């Protein structure tokens, strides 16, 4: 796996190079590269019965046995998304644009992000929450739970990208910016779905010879709407513990023998996921030109 130090040294070598190959080759190309994701962001949210969870629901994440750790509220939970190996392949066309150039390409990419559930002992965790249920004239509070496996996040993507390159005969490299849109097959909590995706790119392209270019730069990749549906099961009723705390604050405890009389309330749907999951990192790769003209 290419390290940050290796990427930095490579970029410096390109910038210091004095050989002038900045003029772009026009025609078709194919390429491939490595993408190191060093910052991955995605705050988990929950929907209960199709509605956004409220503070009163106290949705929390804990170990599956809930014995060795204290549960974390999902609003404060932050998993550590470790850098993975990610690879891409591309096929596109380079054309002239005034004194500069452009590229239009199709890109296929696969990435896998390892998840470390900070504060928890394993990747198989329990998600629990509270819900008020009206039973006749009395309102009662019940606890529900579901078990999920939050081990890794995978993306298999197809993107359409366009780039603008600035050329200069006095430089050995060409700065570029690019944008892309497409779709990704996102696997989260061991369940997959097709989601819209987008990305931004910026960096430097170096022409090694007439047919081969090398690039290195920033890449930001984002996925929209990655909620996953689960079935939650009622555990029992939450009742005020006696005696009450000296400060007068009630403490609820679980009574597993008490469940709603309506069987339809024993199970319900809960959706868990990120409204936006995005990664940031460094990419490096090669493009090989063919059927081209100077």
Automatic annotation (TrEMBL):
<dbReference type="Pfam" id="PF01617">
    <property type="entry name" value="Surface_Ag_2"/>
</dbReference>
<feature type="domain" description="Msp4/OMP-like">
    <location>
        <begin position="24"/>
        <end position="229"/>
    </location>
</feature>
<keyword id="KW-0732">Signal</keyword>
<feature type="signal peptide">
    <location>
        <begin position="1"/>
        <end position="22"/>
    </location>
</feature>
<dbReference type="InterPro" id="IPR002566">
    <property type="entry name" value="Msp4_OMP-like"/>
</dbReference>
<protein>
    <submittedName>
        <fullName>Jg7816 protein</fullName>
    </submittedName>
</protein>
<dbReference type="InterPro" id="IPR011250">
    <property type="entry name" value="OMP/PagP_B-barrel"/>
</dbReference>
